[in-house]
Amino acid sequence: MTVAPGNLIALLAVQQNVSDLQKQLNLYGNIDYVVDEGAELADGYQPPDSWFAARGVARDDLEAAVAVKLPTDPYMHVWFYSWKNLDTKSQWPQKFNQIGSRGLTLLFDDVDKELARILKEFPNTKVLQQPIKIQRKWGETTSALVHDPEGTFVELVSIANNPLVAKAQPALPHHRSFLHFMMNCVNFQETTKWYQAFGMDHDHGVDFRNLHHDDQFNRGIGGRDVFMNQMKTFSHHENVWTDCHFLRSPRDPSHMHLELLEADDCTEGLKDPGLNPTWFQKGIARYCMKTPSFEAAQRTAKERGYKIYIEEQRGALNWGDSQWFFFGDVDGNLLTLEQWHHQRYWGERD
Question: Which of 14, 28, 128, 292 makes an SS bond possible with 54, Cβ 3.0 to 4.6 Å?
């Protein structure tokens, strides 16, 4: 029996508030991101006042909004916002104009249909804005805004005569591509159900293989003990995470996932997001991109003077072996560049 496609197409963006837009654009440009002109407002068009009011900001507060993407990713963007009144206070619940990544965007065939489904299945969902029309260069865009169970700002969008779908195809092995962004959850079970209801499922290929822990973590460079000691860079301690889901849309041919993490005793341990971002904070905490060469990417990051948090980690996953490093962008937000290898790349024999 043929199953009809779901309404969700893909993760479209993670939203990031920046302290210096041009410096951030330069840094992301150095790791291959380009400005997507299609996401820009149509010439002469300005969003209605309701767009700003729904987000708790004023029109004059916003200096600029720029969406960037990796050239071969069909959908995923980083949507930068520059504010005159950027809020740098560490706080939770989070604000729309608070520094760092405070929201995400999901792409649908029909926003009105999806919002009706959400309110039927999750009637406590807070709706910040009913669907409105935004004129963008890629086409008329319907936009609604809600809070997920974490209080993350989630924009629901659809594009008239969507030009992105027909061109969507996976990145090739030599291309850099977005893999996932990570969200630490205070309400993990509720939040997982909320996102799975869009039709996203956990990708078991991302699970660690059932191996001895020194083969699972950092094989050849110290094993699990070294791995866990490295994570102390982010105030991380062993057994802090109790569950994890990498959710993806069945209609998105890219490598993109939404990573949801459950933290043990999270209400006491997770940091309120603000300045000095860390892995161990509430909400969206990290972006991960696939890169064709770990060594070249790491060398370039060092040459450009980027802050390196962890120089190398390794993991043995169901789909293969990975090698990655962590570094910071202009505001210190955690970025990961990861190279994929075949299984047993470092000699594991089990």
Answer: 128
Peptide bond into 74 cis (omega under 30): no
Q: What percent of the chain has pLDDT above 90?
A: 90
Q: Judge contact between 333 and 302, C-beta under 8 A.
A: no
Which residue is it, tokens 């190279």?
339
Exposure string for 255-267, b = 16+ CB within 10 A, e = fewer: bbbbbbbbbeebe
| 221/228 Cα distance (integer angstroms) | 12
- DSSP 3-state of 180: strand
Question: Which tens digits make up the pLDDT trace of 244-261?
Answer: 999 999 999 999 999 999
* Residue 76 burial class via C-beta count within 10 angstroms: exposed 0-12, middle 13-18, buried 19 and up: buried
Contacts of 263 by beta carbon, 8 Å cutoff, 6+ apart: 184, 185, 240, 241, 242, 269, 270, 280
Domains of the chain, first to last = 8-167 (3.10.180.10), 177-341 (3.10.180.10)
